[in-house]
Design a protein that fits this description.
Blueprint: H1 25-31, H2 33-44, E1 48-54, E2 60-70, E3 73-78, H3 83-90, E4 93-97, E5 110-119, H4 123-133, E6 140-155, E7 158-164, E8 171-175
Antiparallel strand pairs: 1-2, 1-4, 2-3, 3-6, 4-5, 5-6, 6-7, 7-8
Length: about 180
Amino acid sequence: MASASASGDGVGHGSPSVPAGAVGWSAVEEAVPEFAGWVRERFGAFRHHVLATLRKDGAPRLTGLEADFRYGELWLGMLPNSRKALDLRRDPRFSLHANPGAGTDLADGDVRVSGYAIEVTDPRVVARYAAAVRPPESFHLFRAALTEVVRTSVEDASTVVQIWRPDRPLRTVRRTGDGSPPPVD
């Protein structure tokens, strides 16, 4: 994939090229529509989620974040010069974990997406987004280029992990507590 800043779409901030195989949200919806719908619904259940970035020293940083699915993309907006924005400018790798909600049963399961956050710098794109979401102040806007989408749920006393990557079909792993190796669907 070409460098985001070289693509002419106003995406990028001098960041390195997005590795081959990272895709926008619309590619996930096209490849695995039912799975993508479930993931999007799970993120939509709550407003705030947990973003993992890498600090300057390489240690992980976890922070809250509002994520937004719009225009076929997953968008990550954050305050100007926040630590997470600075982390992503330096190293665009991230994971975003959906808020699990109240309680401990995870009745609706658990979802996570991972990939690269590409900063959007085109004023027209930022203005279009701002007009739609009406943020209270200025912000950094990143578009997610995804490398993995994971859903974990419990079915019939088994932990079921569904994993989608752009270069592979949806894979399902079922794990039981009996110590046996997990069968892959």
